[in-house]
Every structure is written in structure tokens, then in C-alpha cells.
Amino acid sequence: MTKTENQTNRAVFTTRLGAIATTVGSAVGLGNIWRFPYEAGTHGGGAFMLFYVVFIFLIGVPVLCSEFILGRSTRSNVFGALRKLAPAGKWHLVGYLGILSSLMILSFYSVIAGWTMEYCFQSAAGALDFASESEYHAHFDSFSSGNWRPVMWTVIFLLCNLLIVVRGVTKGIEKASNILTPLLFLMLLVFCVNSLMMPKAAEGLQFLFKPDFSKIDSGVILGALGQAFFTLSLGLGCMLTYGSYFNDRTRIGRSAMMTATLDTAVAILAGIIIFPAVFSFGMSPEAGPTLVFEVLPAIFHQLPGGVLWSAFFFFLLFLASLTSTISMSETNISFFVEECQMSRRKATFVSTSIVMFFGILCTLSFGCMSDVTIMGKTVFGLFDYATSNIFLPVGGFVFSIFVGWFLERRYLKTQMTNFGTVRFKPLPLLVFCLRYVCPVAILLVFLNSIGVI
Ligand code: TRP
Fold first, then answer.
1. Which helix (H) or strand (E) holds 12?
2. pLDDT at position 168, please?
3. Which atom of ligand 1 is nearest to the CA of 27?
4. Which helix (H) or strand (E) holds 75?
5. Mean pLDDT lowest among 130-134, 197-201, 272-276
6. 422-430 contact pairs (CB < 8 A, 24+)
7. Where do runs of H (alpha helix) occur along 340-451?
8. CA nearest ligand 1 atom 4, residue
9. Atom of ligand 1 lying closest to residue 325 CA
10. Average per-residue pLDDT in the chain?
């Protein structure tokens, strides 16, 4: 990514592709390929899918626009943006929740990113060669429940992330991801065709796309809302921070729509790859966080040249995770630098140390700490659940109310039309969604999940 310094000494993306590639890089990651299939699998497939897609476009896209507007118009981090626009209000307090969420998500995200690194190496070494699906399960189980190797990978992954973000500009990785993200997409397409030819493909597709209305309950709806926020990197100010690097010609509405569409396409492809295989191999879709690590290697095993496919795929997944963790780190680092007056270097070390500590606890949730539970969840489970299903939607709720009700409509218009230089027809629709649809829908989902309705 080419960023240059503008008058205020803040970086700006210089190209349009730059802005899109970075936001897509943030959005596309483990959320699409690891989290989406496991959430859909444990929440009844089609029923979950229905709510997920509706939430992406009805809530996700407007909230994404609101984050871009807040970021670009103030050129600040999440905390600074809200304080600049409402100096007397308490709105900026939601920034603390955002920083907390970004540290918590980074902690559990690094565990899974570490798993992808291990599986990349294991594939390349030919260690993932088993005859039956149950062996894939047993193999993954013994790796993830061991203590040392997963912890080592979590730490290595965080160090990779640190090395990139400490230098501030993310040129190398962004350039690489501009090529590799499309490549990941192509690979997914190939695997998709392969899965569609499996004996029980129809059953898998039916599970994913045919809503079984009897399965809809408050957990399904809340899970879909959380997944929509998680996968679009919404609710904690991450997209706000990236928006603050947009230049004045970046079209916010288009960027938001494009990010949401590409991100959803990747998730759906992942679903089409996983579920036909799950049913054909006689596995259970409800395996939870370990699902894709048991199914994917078994799929690759059947392909000619499976070792290479597998190693390359896990490598791409590792890179996709890295572009996502960079965006999350950027959120809290820009906060530490701009609000706590730390140097970038110090901020990066502070952030990495906190995340490493909690990341190790999350890793051990699959090993020696699997019995340590809080409210029935392991540390990993709790971090995942609390951030996605509660903190991010709360953040989105505040952003939509702030932009919809507190800012003047003219302010939104200026941003959506790039200071009147381009047209943005759906402005009334955007305002309507931000004022009514998003806050009301999020509130209803919350009330529903605590049993009020
Ligand atoms: N969206 C990313 C994914 O799907 C993860 C992510 C990056 C994220 N930045 C975020 C999630 C900010 C929530 C908030 O993998």
C-alpha cells in the first residue's frame, strides 16, 4: 500500500485500489473460512445463513459507511473521532470498548492463525496423510490439545504481526496480499467445484441454503448478527481507522458495498466447500472451532497433488489472517499513539504483550486449561462470544445512532458525495437505516437473546 503523509502528518492511501484492497484485506480472513462454517454448522445451516446475509446488507453496510464517514471526516482513531465531533458528549467512551474488543479478538484470532501455520508446515512435510476421517479428527485433536506447539505458533504469529505493524507502513504485505487474495479466491473456486462433485454434495448444499425454520432460535439470530459484525471487521473502530486513511476521492458507499459483497462471496464459497464434504465424509457439522481443520485436510487429501494444494492453501490463509490482524492492531496502536502519546514502537510492544498474554490463555483453552470455564465457556470461547455477539454489535449500535441522529444530514451528504463532486442517490435510504433499522434491529436481537421478547 502506498501511503503518503498529508499535511497533518497522518498517512493517507494514495490509490483507490489501495483503499479497497486494504479494507477487503481486513474483512477477508479467518472470519470467512474458519468462523463462518463453524458458526453456520453449530446453528443449523440455512436458518443461520438467512439471517447472516440479511444482517450483512441491512446492518453491516450502513454501519460500515458510518465508520468510514467518522474516520475520514476526522482523520482520527476511534476515540479521537468521536471526541472531535462531540467534545461535550460521552460518545467517545465506546472507543474504550473498541480498544478492549480489538485486544480480545487479537488474542483468540492468533490461536487459529497459529493453527494455520502448523497445518501449512505439516502439509508440506506430508504429515497429513491419513486413511480415514476419524484419523484427521484425532490428529488435530492431539495437536490442539497439546500445550507447547500451539502456544509456540500463537507466539510466532504475533511476532510476525509485530514485525509488520511496528514499521508503520505495511507496503510489502499489502502488495503481496493484492495478488494473493485474488489467488485465494481462485483456489476456493477450484475446491468448490471439487466439493460439488462429492457424493453427498446435495445434502451439504441443502444444509447450508435451505432454512429449516424450526431451528431458528435466539442463539441463531444473535450468532448471525455477531458473525456479520465480525466478518466485516465492524463495531470496534477498525474500519473507522482505515477510513481515516482514505483520501477525499474514495467513494465511501461503493467501497462499503464492494467490501461486503466480496467478503460474503468468500464466506459462501467456504461454506460450499465445507458442507458437501462434511456430509460425504459422514462428519458432524457441529464440531465447532475445529471443524475446518478436520475437514479441509481430508478434502485436500483426495485431490491429486494434495500435499501442495494443502500447504499452499494454509499459507494463503495465514496471509489472509495477517492482513486482518494488522487492521486490528492498527486500531489499538493508533489509539495508544494518538491518545496516550506513546511512540509507535512502544505502542506496538504494549499491544503485542497484552495480546500475547491473553493469546496464550486462549491457546491453552484447548489444552491444559480446557476445564477452566467462566459462565460455561473456556477463555477462548468467552472471548469469541463476548466480543462478536455483544461488544461489536454494541459498538455498531452507538456508531449508527451517532451518525444517524447526532451528525447533521448535510455532514453525511458531504462525505458520501465526496464534497459534492460525485452523486450518491441512496442517501435517504442510508439515513433511514442508520436512524431506525440498525439500532432497532440490534436492540431487538439483544432483547430476544436475553428472553425479553
Ligand atoms: N474480519 C476479519 C475476518 O473475518 C477479522 C477482523 C479484522 C475483525 N478486523 C476486525 C473482526 C475488527 C472484528 C473487528 O477474519
1. strand 11-13
2. 67
3. 1
4. none
5. 130-134
6. 422/251, 424/251, 424/253, 426/253, 430/62, 430/65, 430/253
7. 344-364, 379-385, 392-401, 409-416, 427-432, 438-449
8. 31
9. 7
10. 92
For 365-418, what is each residue's pLDDT tens digit? 999 999 999 999 999 999 999 999 999 999 999 999 999 999 999 999 999 999
According to DSSP, the residues that pair with 12 across neighbouring strands are 4
With cell 461488544, the residue in question is 391
Residue 9 is predicted with a pLDDT of 58
Residues in the chain, how many?
453
Q: What pLDDT, in 10s, does the model give residues 188-213?
A: 999 999 999 999 999 999 999 999 99
SS3 at position 182:
helix
User: pLDDT band for position 450 (50/70/90)?
Assistant: confident
The SS3 assignment for 4 reads strand
Instruction: Indicate if ligand 1 lies below 6 Å from the C-beta of 105.
Output: yes
**Atom 14, ligand 1: which residue's CA is nearest?**
233
Torsion of CA 346, 351, 354, 356, to 10 degrees: -100
Rg of the chain (C-alpha set):
21
Burial class (CB in 10 A: 0-12, 13-18, 19+), 130: middle
User: Measured between alpha carbons, how far is 98 from 91 in angstroms, rounded to an integer?
Assistant: 12
Q: Assign 203 to helix, strand or coil.
A: helix
Distance (Å, whole) CA 130 – CA 139? 9
Q: In this predicted structure, what is the pLDDT of residue 180?
A: 77
Report how far ligand 1's centroid is from the alpha carbon of 370 (Å). Answer: 25
pLDDT digits (tens, 9 = 90+) for 18-51: 778 889 999 999 999 999 999 999 999 999 999 9
E strand or H helix at 11, and its extent? strand 11-13
Question: Which residues are CB-neighbours of 321 under 8 A, at least 6 positions away?
Answer: 29, 30, 109, 112, 113, 116, 157
d(CA 296, CA 165): 30
User: What separation in Å is there between the alpha carbon of 232 and the centre of ligand 1?
Assistant: 6
| Main-chain dihedrals φ then ψ at residue 374, nearest 5 degrees | -125, 125
Cα 387 to ligand 1 centroid, rounded to whole Å: 11
Query: Of 376, 126, 341, 386, whose CA–CA distance to 236 is shortest?
Result: 386
**What is the CA(28)–ligand 1 centre distance, in A?**
8
How would DSSP label each residue in 157-216? Answer: HHHHHHHHHTTS--HHHHHHHHHHHHHHHHHHHHHHHHHHTSTTHHHHHHHHHS--GGG-
Question: With contact defined as beta carbons under 8 Å apart, do 368 and 116 qualify?
Answer: no
Pull the grid cell for residue 266: 468468500
Per the CB < 8 A criterion, the answer to whether 45 and 277 are in contact is no
C-beta 442 within 6 A of ligand 1: no
Q: What is the pTM of this model?
A: 0.94
